[in-house]
Amino acid sequence: MNFELPYIPERAEKPRKNGITMMMDKGLSLQEATSFIQANGNLTDVVKFGFGTAYVTNDLEKKLALYREAGIRPYFGGTLFEVFYARGKQDDYLRLLDKYKMDLVEVSDGSIIINHDEKCEIIHKLSKERTVLSEVGSKDAGILIAPNRWIKMMKTELEAGSWKVIAEGREAGNVGVFRPNGTAHTMLINKITAKVKPEDILWEAPIKNQQVWFIKLFGANVNLGNIAPNDVIPLECLRLGLRGDTFFEFLPKDYAERLKQVNDDDAIAEYERENSEE
User: Fold this and answer.
1) Which of the residue ranges 145-149, 199-203, 213-217 would you say has the lowest mean pLDDT?
2) Which 3-state string (H, E, C) describes the chain?
3) Are 66 and 30 within 8 A, CB to CB?
4) What is the per-residue pLDDT across 161-211, written as a single tens digit (0 to 9) for each?
5) pLDDT at residue 145 is higher than 50
6) Rounded to an integer, what distance in angstroms lies between the CA atom of residue 104 and that of residue 127?
7) Of 73, 217, 227, 254, which residue is 20 to 30 A from 178 by alpha carbon distance?
8) Do the beta carbons of residue 140 and residue 169 sit within 8 Å?
9) pLDDT-based confidence at residue 269 (cuts at 50, 70, 90)
10) CATH H-level superfamily of 21-246
């Protein structure tokens, strides 16, 4: 960091196992990717080529090389896996991963239904040679999954070989572990994390209020994904207590309470003074 400050939560150096930030690349140009790396490369762990963008992205190999040279692991979004699966082209997908030297791969079934035993077999097979991210949850807001089902799928996918399980939230943050208005399904998340270690979960949280919610619940080193390129630095400031939303999260409790009391007392005094003048 550029200068010293006390009471800043510790963030592990890359490559990190926890506190992962996953940026969602939906079509950055080479120049934009270069600029992103210059500004955010030290703060970004993985980059997802959202949905099927790898199919239409110009200079794909050059872009992958840029991220790798910066110590960022790129991977193709789970929807692309599903696109190949739906067409019966799983072997072609494996050849695609080999062609682009993808060591990180996502297995999901958010757009289609895959028998869960088969999904776990795919995860197990891929995990022998690659690091696997698997995703749980549907992109369809009309499909509801009971908490026990979430837990079972997450646990079995981790047992099958997933490095992290991704909790579906979409790029809009309004399905899966979120309600249509973007607020968290608190009961669902609490039930999941009572049985599945939070550090094994990567939460898709594209909206600031969602990021704040997870940081307050799990701390600075919660795994968060679907972060827009321009939101990586703002997210890191949330993680470190450098924004108003998380300002008091990492200060000593007695210190924070004293500061809050001073602010409250000042506000009350100002309010009483203004009303007495009237």
Assistant:
1) 145-149
2) CCCCCCCCCCCCCCCCCCCCEEEEECCCCHHHHHHHHHHHHHHCCEEEECCCHHHCCCCHHHHHHHHHHCCCEEEECHHHHHHHHHCCCHHHHHHHHHHCCCCEEEECCCCCCCCHHHHHHHHHHHHCCCEEEEEECCCCCCCCCCHHHHHHHHHHHHHHCEEEEEECCCCCCCCCCECCCCCECHHHHHHHHHHCCHHHEEEECCCHHHHHHHHHHHCCCCCEEEECHHHHHHHHHHHCCCCHHHCCCCCCHHHHHHHHHHHHHHHHHHHHHHHHHC
3) yes
4) 999 999 975 555 566 788 888 888 899 899 999 999 999 999 999 999 999
5) yes
6) 9
7) 73
8) no
9) low
10) Aldolase class I (3.20.20.70)
User: What's the token pair of residue 12?
Assistant: 């592990």
Q: Is the peptide bond preceding residue 180 cis, with omega within 30 degrees of 0? A: no
Taking the model in full, what pTM does it have?
0.90
Rounded to whole angstroms, the Cα distance separating 228 from 25 reads 7
In the chain the first and final C-alpha atoms are separated, in Å, by 49
pLDDT in tens, 22-31: 999 999 999 9
Reported residue count of the chain is: 278
Spell out the domain ranges in the chain: 21-246, 248-278
Structure tokens at 31: 């120049």
For residue range 66-107, list pLDDT tens digits in order.
999 999 999 999 999 999 999 999 999 999 999 999 999 999
Average pLDDT over residues 4-11: 94
